[in-house]
Amino acid sequence: MTYPRAWLGFIKVGDRDWSMREVNVLKAIAALFAQLQARVEADERLRYIAMHDDLTGLANRRALLEHMEDRLRPGSPGPVAAFFLDLDRLKALNDFLGHTAGDNFIRTLATRLRENLDPGDVIARLGGDEFVIVPAKPMDAEVAGAEAARIQQLIGRRVTVGEETVSRGASVGVALGIPGETTVADVLRRADHALLSAKSSGGNGVAVFTDAMRAQFELQDDVELNLRGAVSDGSLVLHYQPEVDLRTGRIVALEALVRWQHPTRGLLPPGAFVGVAEATNLAGELGRWVIRTAAEQFAQWRRRGLASNVVMRINVSPVQLVSLDFVETMEGILRRYGIDGSSVCLEITEHVVVQDLARTQVTLRGLKRMGVQIAIDDFGTGYSSLSHLKALPVDAVKIDRGFVQRLGASADDLAIVKSIVGLAGSFGLGVVGEGVETTVAARTLVALGCYRAQGFLIARPMPAEEVEQHLAAGRIALDLDLPGTSRSVLPGQS
Ligand code: C2E
Ligand code: MG
Ligand code: MG
After folding, report:
1. 180 to each of 68, 83, 169, how far by Cα in Å?
2. In terms of domains, do 426 and 323 share one?
3. What is the number of the ligand closest to the CA of 398?
4. Which of 275, 299, 313, 460 gets the highest tally of CB atoms within 10 A of its CB?
């Protein structure tokens, strides 16, 4: 139905009537105006659609970006706060009550936000259960944190959806932008980062972007930017940590652990960059470098009569195990350096195995054909460990250092270690204790029948030149005072 949009009035002065032609012209003018008006309204409607979220009528991503662009222009009042908001476990609500209920829930929350916030505050829904709020008032971190906490409480209140009353916790990440200094993308990334941190500390809370997060963030960026170069320019190094037989101190294996000699940040531990490599397609390259370098070093030691009865342990990333040419690459490297498969052990973590069991099985079988040993690293921290032990061709498990470290202090951990040792025994697997830091832990392992161990008490990871001295001695002196031995183990004893 069309309604009159406006009235166009003409007043006739004098005694002549409007001629038919004049009336028609005036009607044409009026129609023209009406069309123009309709056009303007359609444009407005289009603009509304382009800038608003369908479901809630809140601003959408585009509108948010435009608004923030404007607020962060040089000379605008600041700091400008942004709250990144995410509902905890909305999926469960959708799953149990249906999507319509989920939609109603989100609409109700949108209305609640609109009613309880300053009319000038921009509230945007980015889709799903993600919202961003940009308060109209400039504010510092403290005020922003308090305001975010208020909003978080607001969201957490109950909502009636059909017959049900439900509530969802929300996590909020807060970041500030300085007009003229911070870009929109930066503010949103920081808020998102803070949100992740709020979520990872249990959800249903508020986190403000901090300097520590900034440092972590910068490190990540830096790693992403420079890691590829590092793989090829010689700034990666391997350190080696000996693993011994606790009863004799004899070195039975070396674990190759990668480090990055960073030009400005010093020697970085793998925790600072291996994850980034995995997330940015560099894991394959990094992994090949590690295997090649460890193999080369190993072969060199063996030529010099060192390390002949020692196994080289190498950690592999999940991405490597599921790559199709991993077995071939491994075979090529072993052949090139003349190393028999059985003196190499690859360490895989349990969560790797969980990701793609079928593919992992194929790779591991290929490795087994070359005689390469496989160990499950950080054992006890993953899921359904038992089924993996049955499904995969594994030779040994390494008990996660978290359990070993507290031996002697925690009865729970003692029970766990005991059961892992028992489990390994009944599956006919080797068992290694990692993270031995105290003599109590070492003695306990021996008492439980776990003789192979690695840890700071025995030796820290060290550069190749240093580990050579230990290899030459063949053993590391330990003073464990084990029952049944009258003297401590010294180099030269068997
Ligand atoms: P992981 O394979 O479980 O290696 C043992 C880690 O525990 C090493 O840390 C080692 O320095 C540390 N450690 C050894 N003994 C003790 C101890 O007594 N107490 C404590 N607190 N820690 C001890 P690092 O070198 O920082 O390596 C961390 C993790 O990074 C490794 O855990 C491994 O999962 C991964 N990683 C290391 N090198 C590589 C690599 O070349 N490739 C891949 N994909 N991952 C690697
Ligand atoms: Mg390991
Ligand atoms: Mg480990």
Report:
1. 12, 20, 35
2. yes
3. 3
4. 313
